[in-house]
Amino acid sequence: MSCRSSIAAFVICIFAAFTPLSHAAEDADSLFLDLREAARKDNAAKAAQLADSLKNYDTPSYVDYYRLKTRIKNASAREIDDFLSRYAGSAIADRLRNDWLLEMGRQRNWAAFDQHYPQFVVQDDLQVKCYALMSSAAKGRKVADDARELLTTPKKYGEACKALIAALSKNGQFSADDVWSQIRLAGEVGRGGLAEDLAELVGARDGQVARSVDLPLLTLARGPQSGRAAHETFMIALGRLARKNHEQAAAFVLKHAVRRLSPQEQAMAWAQIAFPASANLAPEAISYWRKAGNARLSIDGHEWKVRAALRAGDWKMVKEAIGAMPRSLQADPAWVYWLGRALAEEGRGGEAQTLYRSIAHQYHFYGQLALEELGQPISIPPQVTPVTAAEIMPMTANPGLARAIKFFKLNMRFEGVREWNWELRGMNERELFAAAEFAREKRLLDRMVNTSDRTKQDFDFTQRFPTPYRDLMQAATRQLGLDMAWAYGLIRQESRFVMNAKSSAGASGLMQLMPATAKWVARKVGMEGFSPSAVNDPKINIALGTNYLKMVLNDLDGSQAMASAAYNAGPKRPRNWRSTLTRPVEGAIFAETIPFSETRGYVKNVLSNATYYAAMFENRPQSLKARLGSVTPVAYAATVLP
User: Fold this and answer.
1) CA 581 to CA 590: how far, in whole Å?
2) Strand locations in 526-635 (E)
3) Which one of 125, 221, 333, 438 is separated from 398 by 20 to 30 angstroms, measured CA to CA?
4) In angstroms, rounded to a whole number, what is the distance separating the alpha carbons of residues 272 and 266?
5) What CA–CA distances, in Å, run from 311 to 49, 283, 315, 317?
6) How far apart are CA 501 and CA 494, in angstroms?
């Protein structure tokens, strides 16, 4: 049959010509994903074999990267330089430079490290930063202050940061006080092995530090023996025990403090108890903090001292605790706002207003609250002039954005986000709006939101706060009498509108429903024939999610603050948190003092989102404070919700 004999024949020929290519592309994508997995497992032989079969793949930089990454420990400087030259200016080149810096740091090859470090763009790797300080210290530079500011999260230290602490201790830039501060930090987060390794730097051996972390009662039963190491391990053990039983830990202090601990050590001992007691929302925490005085605290300790004071209504302690924070922490909008509130309570309204004005222009939870303290309602900023097709055109030709889109299609979200964000660097606001609109065209609403969120002068809230599936949402929320603005605010935080989003815990879809919850709600609402696979269908997901949200809201007395917390952390937890209150508190205090950092940020973001959505839907200013309401102490009662 000739392809020119008829139109039908021509169509058949065209279909035949393109079908093998399509299958070939799918096969190549499958091999590429296998290559990525081989690289993840450091299987150099398999990675090399797969890379050889992908010589003509449309993303050669990643093929070469995955091949080279498995050999990074044995790669030559020439191979690295060749890759970086070939793919100069790309996201994957910066990723390889990150890998190479880690390897050069591990080898203590400071000459090679120093050659590449100034060219490292992303600068988001704590290990690399620790190696950079080690390199500087090796040249005799003073880096102790920078190290103290950097070393605050022991869970992320790894070899590099532990080695930095050892190097600074050896060369005298870190005192014994600095090392013991790091040991206490490790103890706070249960890193007994790390604490024990660091303890050797100050002469504490025989496993006593690790025992104080892992088996605190054994250490406490002996009381503080003679010597600094024994006193420090006693205090670490107090903090570990206080996580489970702060009253028992306090009893040990009362038993031994006067006879065996110095006043400074007594203050530290009470601080070790006050921090976990605060995070457990114990009403006694405020009295422990008063006994702790000006004891040296971790970043978390500083924050929880303020939170305990907020719960207790002790505005004097709120002011003093924020004033004792490191300056970088004081600049956080949360503490700017609460310091303003504390000053206002003292009658220093002018100073408070200055603080509010410093953050009121920021579009987030505390920016909104500051705006209300200034007497201004929360409204939507003027809409920016829409971008034109001509402005969007360069985005369609951007190779990095094209790679990102390909990776999203292959469910390689980490790589896709990295490529997308890399291309946003240096874009002006009009270009950011255009990139966001391009993301909308590609149905990448999470990238649209993230990209538009970066603008500082002009704003497009249709990009920042989209309303996909609005017909479904209106029908579902109207039927339930549910606030649609709140539901959209929750979805924006839960999934960023990624329909097939799946959390590490197994939650799925727009409203991120757990399988067991989805099944339970389906049964409750009489949804016939429900199967777990249906949870990613927008109609099913919205129907089940809004019903569950309404159930949680009803169960928690109509409080959107508590119901948002329940949606994220489970219904029992906010009930328990409320039961520990000693007085009614405003919703903002309840939100700020949620013990789980993820849930704390979640609740603040959901209600901030909801306030903006309401302003858009109703076309009038809103009050976040009214939405937050107040939370009143109620004795804990078991809930029937899952």
Assistant:
1) 9
2) 585-586, 630-631
3) 125
4) 10
5) 61, 8, 10, 11
6) 9
DSSP string for residues in 358-390: HHTTS-SHHHHHHHHHTT--B-PPPBPPPPPHH
Assess whether 284 carries a catalytic annotation: no
Closest CA to 279 of 244, 249, 251: 244
Q: Indicate the SS3 state at residue 530.
A: coil
CA distance 419 to 90: 8
How far apart are alpha carbons 234 and 208 in whole angstroms?
Answer: 10
298: amino acid identity, one letter = S
In whole angstroms, give the CA distance from residue 35 to residue 117: 28
User: For residue 410, what are the contacts with CB-CB under 8 A and spacing of at least 6?
Assistant: 29, 32, 33
The closest of 484, 491, 493 to 618, measured between CA atoms, is 484
- Could you give the 3-state DSSP secondary structure of residue 526? coil
What angle do the packed helices 597-618 and 484-494 form, to 10 degrees? Answer: 140
Q: How many CB atoms lie within 10 A of CB 477?
A: 20
Question: How deeply is 254 buried, as exposed, middle or buried, from its count of CB atoms within 10 A (0-12, 13-18, 19+)?
Answer: exposed
Q: Residue 469 — left, alpha, or beta (φ > 0 → left; ψ -120 to 50 → alpha)?
A: left
Are 351 and 358 in contact, with CB atoms under 8 Å apart?
no
CA distances to 145, 148, 306, 354, 597 from 326, rounded to whole Å, are: 12, 11, 13, 20, 20
pLDDT digits (tens, 9 = 90+) for 170-222: 999 999 999 999 999 999 999 999 999 999 999 887 788 999 999 999 999 98
| pTM, to two decimals | 0.92
Which helix (H) or strand (E) segment is 1 a member of? none
Which of 489, 539, 486, 493 is CA-nearest to residue 512? 493
Active-site entry in 247, 494, 586, 598: 494
Q: Which residues of 339-372 are buried (b: 16+ CB within 10 A; e: fewer)?
A: bbbbbbeeeeeeebbebbebbbeebbbbbbbbbb
Of residues 635 and 245, more confidently modeled: 245
pLDDT digits 0-9 by tens, 97-150? 999 999 999 999 999 999 999 999 999 999 999 999 999 999 999 999 999 999
